[in-house]
Amino acid sequence: MATIITVAPTGPIASKADNFSLPTQPDEIAAAVAAAYAEGAAIAHLHFRDRADRPTADLDVARRTVALIKERCPILIQLSTGVGLDVPYEQRAALVELQPEMATLNPCSMSFGGGEFRNPPAGVEVLARRMRELGIKPELEIYDSGHLDACLRLRDKGLLEEPLQFSLVLGVAGGMAATAANLFAMHSRLPVDSIWQVIAIGRENLPLTAIGLALGGNARAGLEDTLYLRKGELASGSSPLVRRVAHLITALDGHVATVPEARERLLAGRQNRLD
Ligand code: KMH
Ligand code: ZN
């Protein structure tokens, strides 16, 4: 089966002071996504920033960025509803009204680095229900073992449709540590037929992404997850990180999913609403 690469070019935390190549404005994000698409990414996981580079859920910024991406390439759009730690939940949730093909769903509140990532249970249920109504595929962000159980409860309430799609996020301070043992433990608990990928934050990004691929998962790459290509060497953008993951996939005798293949696997029977 083809392996899907998601590019995550921006994220909620890093700034241009951390890595000058971080794209924050619509034209920069569109250029970064197009370059990543050329290297094999089939999904773009998007966060937006205002003119001062602060995380924003501004619908005009989101719409403009998506339009610029669509002018350049046919990559699938996944909007982050995580957005940023200081953005109110209702604004974050409103992004799904743009009807992207996919969006993230973060099931639980948690400490997140030095801040708080607020995902109140009632809000999560409303957002899950709305995504189901709109036919938007949720990517479930699992930062710890109990987050998986929270997702299974949402499924049991009829708010999530199978196959479930998970990101196993390792290495956020406040979530599970970036260790192979944690990855194996989470992987062993996923429902059969789940679609999943590793999101490994920071210095363990490469080895844990490689283990995820060897276990049959998809992969995510980009400056949201690591600012470095290797120790001491800042990445010049997300596309070198995507290229490296594509090499890993082919070295494992796998095949990098095209956009039509990713669409078929993730969105069978759904409409492409942003076209
Ligand atoms: N920034 C990652 C740790 C989201 O955007 O909804 C998690 C993430 C979640 O990508
Ligand atoms: Zn994100």
Structure description:
With about 280 residues, this protein is of the alpha/beta class. Helices cover about 35% and strands about 20% of the residues. The chain contains 9 helices and 14 strands. The strands form 4 sheets. Strands 1-2-5-6-9-10-11-12 form an 8-stranded parallel beta barrel, surrounded by 7 helices. Helix 5 (about 145-155) links the parallel strand 9 and strand 10. About 50% of the residues are buried. Zinc ion binds near residues 8 and 11. Zinc ion binds near residues 45 and 82.
Write the layout of secondary structure elements.
Layout lengths: L4 E3 L18 H14 L3 E4 L1 E2 L5 E2 L2 H14 L3 E4 L9 H6 L7 E4 L4 E3 L2 E3 L3 H14 L2 E6 L2 H12 L8 E6 L9 H10 L5 E6 L4 H10 L3 E4 L6 E3 L2 E2 L4 H13 L7 H9 L8
Parallel strand pairs: 1-2, 1-12, 2-5, 5-6, 6-9, 9-10, 10-11, 11-12
Antiparallel strand pairs: 3-4, 7-8, 13-14
Helix pairs in contact: 1-2, 1-8
Bound molecules: (5S)-5-amino-3-OXO-hexanoic acid and zinc ion.
Zinc ion binds next to loops.
Radius of gyration: 17 Å
Strand order of the largest sheet: 1-2-5-6-9-10-11-12
Q: What structural class should be given to the helix and strand makeup? A: alpha/beta
What is the averaged pLDDT score?
97
Number of strands: 14
Number of helices: 9
* Largest sheet report: 8 strands, parallel, barrel
Task: Return the string of H and E elements.
Answer: EHEEEHEHEEEHEHEHEHEEEHH
Strand content: 15-25%
Low-confidence stretches: none
Percent of residues in helices comes to 25-40%
**Global shape:** globular
Distance between the termini: 26 Å
- Are any ligands bound, and if so which? (5S)-5-amino-3-OXO-hexanoic acid, zinc ion
